[in-house]
Specification:
Largest sheet: 7 strands, mixed
Number of strands: 13
Distance between the termini: 56 Å
Strand order of the largest sheet: 7-9-10-11-8-12-13
Shape: elongated
Helix content: 40-55%
Number of helices: 22
Strand content: 5-15%
Structural class: alpha/beta
Amino acid sequence: MRNQIRNYIRAGYPGIYLVSCEETRIEAEMKSIAQSLDYHLFGWSITEGLVDALDGSAHGGQDAVELMMKVDDLPENSIVLLKDFHQFLEDGNPVLVRKVKESLRAGKTKGRALVIVGCRSALPRELEREFVIVEFALPDKEQLGIILDNIAASAQLPKPENDERDQLLGAACGLTSIEAENAFALSVVESHKLDPGIVAREKANEVKKSGLLEVCSLEASLDNIGGLECLKAWLLQRREAFGKEAEAYGLPSPKGLLIVGIPGTGKSLTAKATANVFNKPLLKLDAGRLFAGLVGQSENNLRSVISTVEAIAPCVLWIDEIEKGFNGARSSGASDGGTASRVLGTFLTWLQDRQAPVFAVATANDVTQLPPELLRKGRFDELFFVDLPNQQEREAIWRIQVVKFGRQPEKFDTIQLARATEGLTGSEIEQLFIDALHEAFSRRTEPTDLSIAMLLNDLVPLSKLMGEQIEALRKWSRGRTRPATQAQHPEHTGRKILT
């Protein structure tokens, strides 16, 4: 990042816009760049005005227009770091916009560069082509390691080494330098040592602030899922594909999978379990929250999500019910000026071309709402279809649910229960057993096969309520998807079974 900015200044770029909330880190980087190029460095904020970074002398110019006049008097080969200046440009003040253009034109001949730093990109259309925009990346492991060593030294703790160091840096990836420093310091205060668990907890809190991403726990595993053996085998085959051995072998990192199917059949649970299989952090993206009312904010939200996810990588990114986030992309030209279409396009490009080891798991219930370009090969490694559980899967689901609620499977006839609950989804079976527990608790006894069967008489399953939609989904999946469960009869799947 430092070399990229240095090259822009050396090439005579008069306007650079750094998108980042890390002012302190950027100030340090710009001081290093100015020193290496033998440039003068000035900083500006509305509270302090124009200040010489070398001797701290103030040059006035707290007003934005007055500042631009001061800039014209600065010596050649100068860098002016402007903090929060984008807030003045947003209003489109014609006098300020014109003065910025003139300063940029003069700066190109005199080696002066205006460097705006802001947490989001917000330039008026008149200046969009005048500035080069640089997404200032979050600190990498090497930079976080320096922070970690400084905290260890200040707390008089031994410098973490090997696995402990990797765990701490992995837990801090995705944080800003200040956030990482605070998390390391808090772990020392709380546990009198550098604790990766505390750092990871603080990262989850920081990531959640935006409302776009959430760091989820890794409690779910494949053992919590009844059936879906084909999907499980596919995941297990790729569990080692993120390591250095796979890279040396020439194996590219898996991109991800899209799971479509009937609601309540374990799609979201599989997404959660995927992170456990790969032993990687799990981040959940709320695609619907990407879209905001301000012009350009939706695109900024997506860029922020991508930078955070790639900083935390290797990780698993879970997009639940993806069709609800992007179902307006087709008609967005008439409804929102094309914002949804642009956001989807950027997201699809990232899915296709990303280099960071991010495994994306998307789930969808209604495939008719999915943009066709999302289903194309290359976005995801595989497209799986999850149908209603068969007899063997329902038996496994019953055993899992009985154990989950502290009962012994041997006390229930799970084979008969599986037969009686044909057409039920996994979530419906879980809720049925919960209802049986409530009914039994009211009588201060234990649920039995008979009490469960009596409750089943009053249950109207989703397979009846949405029979037409489910059959349409099955018809669509034939020949287009890979079944998550091996079909018992060839006619149940569009895939040809070789014998």
